[in-house]
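Customer ticket, subject: "Can you confirm the structure for Oxidoreductase?"

Message body: Hello, I'm evaluating your service for our small team and ran a test protein. I'd like someone to confirm that this is what the system normally returns, since I don't have a reference to compare against.
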Amino acid sequence: MSKIENGVALITGASSGIGLVTARALRRAGYRVFGTSRKPMPDTPDGVAMLVCDVTDDGSVQRTIDEILARAGRIDLLVNNAGIGLLGAAEESSEAQAKALFDVNFFGVLRMTNAILPVMRRQRKGRIINMSSILGLIPAPYNALYASTKHAIEGYSESLDHEVRTQGIRVVLVEPGVTRTSFEENLTRPDHPLPVYDTARANAEKLMRDVIRTGDAPEVVADMVVKAANAASPKRRYTAGKAAGQVRFIRRFLPESFVDKNLRKFSRLPA
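Agent reply: Thanks for trying us out. I re-ran your input and got the following:
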């Protein structure tokens, strides 16, 4: 079977975790895959070509696109996976820290997408998959700013899909639940912590560690990305994992008071 029968794929944030597992899954599914990381990395043994790309830098983004076009001639699939976390009360982060988070998680997606849309438009074919989260669907105590970036991705992606659909391009969302990665080890902490939140913030960190230990394997997310990439008529959203599917159902169909009460219970907050 040809390893490029499905075209050329680019996935950001592919150095580890969901990104690396997804890059390998796309490779097995028949794509020629380019992954990006902020620092130089060797190509993977199974054929994922690694490139250096800083999604917060317009020049770096454009150089990455240009290099892939020089080497492969086209880009059929973009998976916007690069992102960072931030755990803390909303008022514990400065405006500068909030902007830095959005610069990666939202504007990084915007930069990559704006750079690749002209390529896909010339091809009259392309698919963009934006990695959201169940935190793009629900409120998340002590994750307010991170959840805000994912809510922004949700609205941006849905709107953009309507705009580019007649150009042969589709934009879809993949919404992982809690996934077993080192995400919690790489969290940004608030730059202006306040004593009033110390206990609750520590409890939120413990809860995150606890749920990640029993979360979905990253392969669950990777399989959903491949499904979204290959669907002839893609859905707008692909929820990855049983828990994420349950959260989506609860948010859409159950009373707000029920959602509020159970969210506080899950978050180990007083009623």
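A couple of notes from the result: The two ends are 57 Å apart (CA to CA). The longest strand covers residues 169-176. Feel free to reply with more questions.
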